[in-house]
Design brief:
Blueprint lengths: L2 H18 L2 H35 L2
Helix pairs in contact: 1-2
Length: 59
């Protein structure tokens, strides 16, 4: 899943939640979504670093 897809998904999720929840709940949901996004970014970064190391070592 690309970063653009993830950000689009988060944006849609926040819009959906806007209609269903109070502002306080919405803030909690946004925080939860940002934690998930941060996890995805860390996973992608680690994957890219492993690929870079493999290329450098010729594996």
């Amino acid at each position: 899943m690309s970063m653009a897809e993830i950000l689009g998904m988060l944006n849609e999720k926040v819009k959906e939640d806007d209609n269903k929840h109070s502002p306080w709940t919405r803030m909690v949901l946004e925080k939860d979504l940002l934690k998930k996004l941060r996890t995805v970014i860390v996973i992608e970064y680690a994957k890219n670093m492993r690929q870079k190391k493999r290329r450098e070592h010729g594996k």
